[in-house]
Amino acid sequence: MSKQVLITGGAGFIGSNFVHHWCQNHDGRVVVLDILGYAGNKANVSDLMEQARFRLVEGDICDGELVAALLAEEEIDTVIHFAAESHVDRSILGPAAFVQTNVVGTFTLLEAFRNHWQAKDKPADFRFLHVSTDEVYGSLEADDPAFTETTPYAPNSPYSASKAGSDHLARAYFHTYGMPTLITNCSNNYGPYQFPEKLIPLMCLNILLGKPLPVYGDGQNVRDWLHVSDHCSAIDTVLHKANPGDVYNIGGNNQVKNLDIVHQLCDLMGELAGDLPQPPRELITFVTDRPGHDRRYAMDISKIEKDLEWTPAYNFETGLRQTVAWYLENRDWWQPLLSEEYRGYYDNLYGDR
User: From the CB of residue 213, how many other CB atoms can be counted at a distance below 10 Å?
Assistant: First the structure.
């Protein structure tokens, strides 16, 4: 039976990739709720606008009346919740927005969905899938084992603390009300449509523009990298196969140091981009480290591999090459994003480092 889905944050990076994945693989109504802030972009879903089953609503997940009305009007049975403030650096500069969106917004959605689900006599096939991050688990030392679903939470930034709070709320709504929630915690995503404040698109664009490539600290921080297409397929799998109340880690099995990624991007851009303003490696600039910068993340994905038979399809080398090619081929997408507001944020973040 087709699901009637509400996808929050569906005009953002991961959300829009998931919307395309869903529309390509499933029937039924698709409603996207997105505030269309700096990282939400109508262009990310413009090709779907003419489909009768697709609807984009510009609105705030903190607006309880709007959320309740959408759930009832569209007869939603499934919520996939991507909407979040998600950039650690922005959370350090202004944490209030992260608490409001990630904690209050998630609570607003959960409460509206609980009322909707209860009004429908608690259908067993309803689902609320909350998309979270590996950052809630804190930082690992070089020899520590990877995060599992039972790793204690130890968030170290306002961003990760706000996501931890939202995870706890989703868990509580299952255990208190029996509401059919699911939680996924993913590692660093990369791929098409990622806003250029994040590492990979930032480096690609700065290389094209001949600007410095800012690398925090010694560049030895390690992240596990997950192609956004793999993330989308994993969420789809969890939604259809997992039991209510389940939690799954999603990762790409690609632990890479930040500096190594920058070197790979320099080489790929030199190979694929043609004429560049400067040799890319000459642009690498080490800057003062981010406060509370977690040293290493690593995800143990054995649970989702065993329980749901999901594994990532992309290796990092192939995925990174495809991603670089996408940014080179889609300049009309990213050039409008380099606004005065973005330049001001960039200068504020890196100017004195």
Answer: 21
What is the C-alpha to C-alpha distance for residues 243 and 251, in angstroms, rounded to an integer?
A: 20
| CATH number of the domain bearing residue 140 | 3.40.50.720
**From the centroid of its chain, how far is CA 48?**
21
Could you read off the pLDDT of 125-162 as tens digits, one per residue? 999 999 999 999 999 999 999 999 999 999 999 999 99
Q: List CB contacts of 351: < 8 A, sequence separation 6 or more.
A: none
Q: What is the pTM of this model?
A: 0.96
User: Which residue type sits at 46?
Assistant: S
Question: Could you give the residue numbers annotated as active site?
Answer: 134-135, 159
| Burial (Cβ within 10 Å: 0-12, 13-18, ≥19) of residue 50 | exposed
The answer to whether position 298 is within a domain reads yes
Residue 345 tokens read as 């944020």
82 vs 34: CA distance, rounded Å: 10
The domain total for the chain is 1
Return the structure tokens found at 181. Answer: 């929630």
Q: Amino acid identity of 328?
A: L
In our burial notation (b when 16+ CB lie closer than 10 A, e otherwise), range 102-115 reads: bbbbbbbbbbbbbe
